[in-house]
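Deliverable D4.2, example record:
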Amino acid sequence: MSVPHDKTEKKIRFELEQIDKLLKKYESLINKSRTEEVDSVELAASASVIHSFYNGVENIFKLIAKNVDDSLPIGSNWHKQILTQMNGQTESREKVISDELLNELLRYLAFRHFYRHSYSFVLDWKEMKGLIVDLPDVQNRFKKEIEQFLKA
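Output generated by the structure prediction step:
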C-alpha cells in the first residue's frame, strides 16, 4: 500500500488545521450549546459551523480520492459515494475511516444536504443540537483516523 506523496499530505494537513481553527473559533458557541438553547443568530452560526466542518472533511476525502485512489466519484450522489469510498480498502491504500466514523459522518452529510437546500429560518435546534455538541468528539476521531492513514 502506498502513502500519499508530500504535496497531498501537506494539503491534507492544511485542511486539518483549518478544521481545528474553525472549532477553536466557535468553541464558546459549541460549549454554550451543551447546556443552553441558542437564539436564532446562534442557531444559524451553529449550522454554518457544522456545514464548514463537513466541507473540510470532504476536501480531505477529495484529495485522497483524486491523488491516492485516482478515482473521484461523479454524479449527483458523489457526496455519499466518497464517504463509502473512504470506508473501503483499495489497491493503493487501507480504509481511511472506520465504520463507526462513517456512521457519524453520514449524519453530517445529511445535515449538509439539508443546509444547502433550505432557509436558515427552518433550522430546528432539536435536530441540530447533537451535531454541534458532538462536533469536537467527531473531529478528534476524524483527525486521529486521518493521522493513522497518513502514517500507514
